[in-house]
Predict the structure.
Amino acid sequence: MSFREQLEKNQVWLYACVLPFAAGIGLLWPNATANLDPFISFVLAILMYGMFAQIPFFRLREARSNRKFIYALLIVNYIAVPIIVWGLTRFLPADPALLLGVFLVLLTPCIDYVIVFTHLGRGDAKLVLISTPLLFVTQMLLLPFYLWAFMGKQAAEIMSVKPFLEAFIELIVLPLLLALLTQLWAKRQPLGTRILDTTSWLPVPFMALTLFVIVASQISKLYTSFEFISRVIPIYAAYMVIAPVVARIVSRLFRLEIGAGRALIFSAGTRNSLAVLPFALALPEPINGLVSAVIVTQTVIELIGELIYIRLVPNVLMKET
């Protein structure tokens, strides 16, 4: 096994180590780590490019060949999950920053490290991989609709179109276009293939770096707003419990194979915190710090939950028959 493969296999533990380290640095030297804010967009852009470059955008035909799984995936992520999220947020105060952060992060399914978690949980990681282009496109299209449906005028009052659009172009569209060009180049030139292979090194170290920069720079805000943030922790924990059970029921309804069913469970439970963080950072002060803290809190809860998932899903929730 190559060093890169070992790094990918153990990335969960790397992130678990980075989070407390970054939190410690951020709490010990809050003034110094506050200067990391301008670097968040830079490392996020590189991370997004690295992640998008690994998504098989030109293998959509393979996704269509697994229609039963794709139907189950879309139903879980875009019908069942929004219902769960709507129900859970009824227990939150009607605070726009709190609700926006929760909606942004829980309504968007993960398209990156969910593949690793699925593999560690003995699910069919290839099914998740080939479905990532569809998940990415659908969540970007549906997110504005869900925000409008759940928050109405509140979302429009908070989110100014111009900075939101700028963040979307700079941190989503441009890295995506660059990744697509890299993949097209790899189809035509050996040099393009080598560059595409090199990009496979980017996601894990830049995911770790992104987590470090975000947590170190935002932890003091999270610490000072702990009473505010603490309200979403039970919601995130409840989501981590409910989503796999609902996905298990859907997998049974669609009669998915064991590996596909586990993949569905991991997709339902794993959310896209880093992809929506640019939208939070584009919000006006001071609400951007609060919404970002709500999103980062979900990342921390999720990583803890995933370490439980990789044991619980294959051994309890969806055992071999």
About this structure: The chain is about 80% helix and 0% strand. The chain has one domain: 3-317. The mean pLDDT is 86. The longest helix spans residues 287-317.
